[in-house]
Amino acid sequence: MSAAATTGVIVQMRIDSSRLPGKALLPLAGTTLAGAVMRRLRGITADAYILATDAAGAQALGPVAAAFGFSVFAGPKYDVLARFVMAAGVFDLDRVVRATGDNPFVSVPLAELALDESDASGADYVGLAGMPVGMGVEVVRAEALVIADSSTTSAFDREHVCPYLYGHPDEFLVSQPGCPDTYHNPQARVTVDTGVDYRRAMAIFADLGDEPSDDAILSWLRDERKDG
User: Fold this and answer.
1) Could you confirm whether domain 7-227 is CATH 3.30.420.40?
2) Helix and strand tally (H, E) in the chain?
3) Domain-by-domain residue ranges, the chain?
């Protein structure tokens, strides 16, 4: 990846959720789930920070995005792949750090490792493996997203953005290295998808403060596993 390449953090988010209705605006860590996610993502080195949502999300989440320095892009509600391609085009991005609005404990150090791997390998797709669910991001060349957008009609591919890329290693250069040993705990989860997840997130923030370090989060998860 060229040193002049433009990198943007794009976080996908909507206000409706079948498993946890309205979760993006649920109170968390002195803000909302959406705010906690964006606050964390601001630690990643990038040229642009973008909330990619739909029309309803843009209206409801716009003030939260502004508070944390995110631009807002409204695109298709269900075709998230197209939403990313459109947002990358509008902001003239060469590379996208894909994040989701479920993850208030995303790891900035792991994101930086993924960006370093993207620089070193020139991969179309980079995704570290083995960390707790909810701590990772994906780093993708915008051009690869454009190709995926024009190639797949699968609803699954279009909802989840990146499966077409790593599902076609004959077409794309894919890098999926293991995370550092200190992070390895694939059975753990810090994503917020259900009420149980939300209560766990509240407990973590209550114990560790509003902006916990990765080390503190990993230690909390190890203790939870022992207690469980």
Assistant:
1) no
2) 9, 9
3) 7-227
